Amino acid sequence: MRAAAVFQRYRSIDDQAEQLTGFDQSYQQLDRGSYRGAFLACDDEEVGFFVEHTNRRLGQQGAGPDGMISAVVLLSAPGHSLNNGSTFSMDDIVLVGSGGAYEAVIDAGVEPAVFSVPLGATTALPLRRLSDQQAGRVRRIADPELSRKFRAVAANALRSWDAASQSVSVPRSVVHALMLEVLTAPSAADGSSHGSIQLYRAARDVMVDALTVSLPVPEVASRVGSSRRTLEQAFDTCVSVSPARFHKLLRLNNARRLLESGRHSVSRSATSSGLHHLGRFSSDYHELFGELPSETALRAKVLIADPAPAGV
């Protein structure tokens, strides 16, 4: 059955992050170069289907929408991706329950596909009952055959894309059956301890609250009740980035967001992000995003004066 869909290309990671309806996602760019992404969204009443592509390594944070169960598979995986500190490969499915929080690192060129089922729209009682048991949870299922089935449905849906009618064909009954299958599958052994992801999240929150200053790693470790070594191991496991580098990336991404808002000068965006050496800020910014902060600011002013569609 055909359903309305939208396909757009993006130069802004924030605009792209908003397309996964209800997941309250936020993205951080983790590697160097200008950003280009694409997103196909089919937000149907009975089945949601979303596929995205990015040319940069991203840190992604979000949570499953209320009243919904979701399964995520990778259509391509040229790099190393993580979900909640565990390796996420093409042989895996990540099951995201209502309110289940996730921290993902998606490598450049990786294409995740998300299937979502709104529980209020389905009359299948087993699906609703099993989904209720997943509330607040995120599970990784290592099942190559089941992952292959999801990827086959995704590939057929992508091939069915019709630009003229802005629609795709998604077999709802097949998706519901696969969702039942994945709900009853055993979880894979986690690649990291629950303590690692909890420690990483606590430290990340400390860093987010201290964007205006350069916070030493020992101070972050002290605030979350950890040793520096343990904290470094948690970051290596969960995001493959050192705590010091991650805090620097958070501040540079924050400066980019301030510049893209069109309401901040280059100097104010830098100092508001704890980056007080403007020459070094400009160099670091250019190295990460592939353009100077003044170029980002100018583009934002042009878009405000003559707005274009977000995906252009």
What does this structure look like?
- This protein has 312 residues and is of the alpha+beta class.
- The protein is built from 11 helices and 14 strands.
- The chain has helices at 13-17, 125-132, 144-159, 172-183, 194-208, 217-223, 228-239, 243-260, 266-271, 278-289, 293-305, and strands at residues 2-4, 6-10, 26-29, 37-43, 48-54, 58-63, 68-76, 81-83, 86-88, 92-96, 101-106, 111-118, 138-142, 167-169.
- Strands 2-4-5-12-7-10-13 form a 7-stranded antiparallel beta sheet.
- Strand 4 (37-43) and strand 5 form a beta hairpin.
List keywords for this structure.
alpha+beta; 11 helices; 14 strands
Q: Radius of gyration, Cα only, in angstroms?
A: 20 Å
Q: In DSSP terms, counting alpha (H) and pi (I) runs of 4 or more, how many helices?
A: 11
Say how many strands there are.
14
Helix-and-strand structural type: alpha+beta
Strand-residue proportion: 15-25%
Could you say which overall geometry the principal axes of the C-alpha atoms support?
globular
Widest beta sheet: strand line-up: 2-4-5-12-7-10-13
Largest sheet: 7 strands, antiparallel
Mean pLDDT: 91
H and E order: EEHEEEEEEEEEEHEHEHHHHHHHH
Gap between N and C termini: 29 Å
